[in-house]
Predict the 3D structure of the following.
Amino acid sequence: MSDYNWDATRAEVDYRMAELRRAARQARMSRGNRVVRWVRAHRVTNVEVPRQQRRTATVPEARARHSA
C-alpha cells in the first residue's frame, strides 16, 4: 500500500472514530433528556382537549360586499 493510500485510509478511520465518539456522547447526554420529556408529557396529561367541530368556509363580510 502506498503512503498516499495509507494516509487516506488512516484519515478516514480517524474521522469515523470521531463520529462514533460524538454519536455515543450524544446518546449518553440525551438519555436524561428522554426521562425529563417523558415525565413532563405524562405529568400534564389531565388536560382535556375539546372535540373538533367541522366548520364550513365563509366569505368575510367585507369581501362579500365588494364582490357583489
User: Anything to note?
Assistant: The CA atoms of residues 38 and 44 lie 10 Å apart. The chain has two helices and no strands. The first helix runs from residue 3 to 43.
